[in-house]
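If your schedule permits, I should be very grateful for your opinion on a structural question. The matter concerns a single protein, recorded as an amino acid sequence and a row of backbone structure tokens. Could you please explain, in whatever detail you think fit, how the structure tokens follow from the sequence? I set the record out below, with my sincere thanks for your time.

——
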Amino acid sequence: MDRFAIFVDAGYFFAAGSQAAFGATVPRHCLSIQAPAEMISKLTTQAQVSADGIPLLRVYWYDAMPGPRLSLEQSQLAILPGVKLRLGVLNNNGEQKGVDSLIVTDLIELARNGAITDAILVSGDEDLRIAVELAQSYGVRIHILAAGEARRNVSHSLQMAADSVSELDGEWFKATLANTSRPQPEAPTIEPRPEAMAKAPVDEPEATTLSFKDAAKRVIEELIDADPAQIPDLVQHFSTSSSVPSDFDGKLIARIRALLGEQLTGEQKREARGFFVHRVRERGALLQAAAPSA
């Protein structure tokens, strides 16, 4: 049975995709996928054009762990049907390591075992050329799906080795990626009237010191309220895992530490994470109760 697989280098996807969408490469921590399930569906539809409409075996998503925990986005992708999350590591410079070797291994093994007849590579790395040629020796057709313009974002030797090259354009990525680095419009400045200035109270330092529990609760509410739209995604994440996603965990611990003005103990970190999970589930239940019934 003819089938194809999609191999996505996430580092390339975000770097080249942001350049195509926004005119410049945006730091990874400022980017997110707006709707992971919808993105995978659109990517599969685009890839099927190159694969002549044959069935999909699986989407392989290659990324690096941002820390000891998955990010919320990685967690969302990992539980999608037909998606396999494969993880390398980040070095001290924030560069992915081990991702290319994972792509090479999967591509060659699937080709060797006759599991696929076509492979769609969302990557531009010249280091993949040898793997492409080896997979072709097993009869697999290799198609490059470039992020943005292939002439800019895919090595020339990789293009020559591939059986076809097509592109995901800037508009595709504009509809797919959220960019938090883009400047927000400034609120208008309102000058206070002189009499208001005269009556303005003088700020005084807080008379009381926050307890650990109060500091944790304050930070947790701030994190959740910063983007309430993520509550359903977090609730879904905590339905299968009690681990706080890395993109929330770092902020949670750092902000509590800053409020208290001291390092947290291991026990306090565990308690803070437990408070966060509990509060997300509470907020999720409130949202569900408030939602109109079908």
Q: What stands out?
A: Residues 212-290 form one domain. The chain has two domains: 4-179, 212-290.
